[in-house]
Every structure is written in structure tokens, then in C-alpha cells.
Design a protein that fits this description.
Layout: E1 5-13, H1 19-22, E2 30-38, H2 39-58, H3 70-75, H4 86-89
Antiparallel strand pairs: 1-2
């Protein structure tokens, strides 16, 4: 059987180079990142470990999809309020 792959792509930053953005290092750059993984690895390893991490650290409601958005993580709001606890912020849960 032919190996199948999945690509995960995400952008970070601001695409605009307006005058006000040029001096602010937090708004100055746009980054595009991608990883390509074997689809079997996604099913057997990556997905399971990601769900375990989300449940252990953030304990999301089962009916709500937990999506990692940098703005929410930085504010430690919503499901990311667990990051206000320094032990949880470093991945220690017990």
C-alpha cells in the first residue's frame, strides 16, 4: 500500500507592513510553518498524545473543541486559564 501523508500548516504574525507595525517586533514578521507526517503516525501517535496533553493540562469540556490560539494562550483565558497556575504552565499536573 502506498504511504499517505498529512501536512499541517500554520501562520504566525502579521502580513501587513504598515508604518506602525515596522517598529513593533511583535507585529513585524510573518512566519509560515509546516510539518508533514505519515498518516499512520498521526492516527497512532500524534493525535493520541495531543489529546492526552490537552486533557491533562487544560481539562476541556468534552463538547468544546480546544484549539491552540496564541492570543488565548497569552491571555491565559478560557480553557487556558490553567496557565495561571505555574505548575500547570510547565506541564506538571500532579
Amino acid at each position: 500500500m502506498k504511504t499517505r501523508y498529512r501536512a499541517y500548516i500554520d501562520e504566525f504574525g502579521v502580513a501587513s507592513l504598515k508604518v506602525g507595525n515596522r517598529d513593533d517586533l511583535n507585529l513585524r514578521y510573518l512566519s509560515l510553518t509546516a510539518i508533514i507526517v505519515d498518516l499512520d503516525n498521526v492516527k497512532s501517535v500524534i493525535s493520541l498524545q495531543l489529546h492526552r496533553f490537552k486533557n491533562e493540562v487544560f481539562n476541556p469540556h468534552p463538547d468544546e473543541l480546544l484549539i491552540f490560539h496564541l492570543s488565548d494562550i497569552r491571555r491565559a483565558s478560557g480553557p487556558f486559564c490553567a496557565l495561571n497556575n505555574p505548575l500547570a504552565a510547565y506541564g506538571y499536573t500532579g
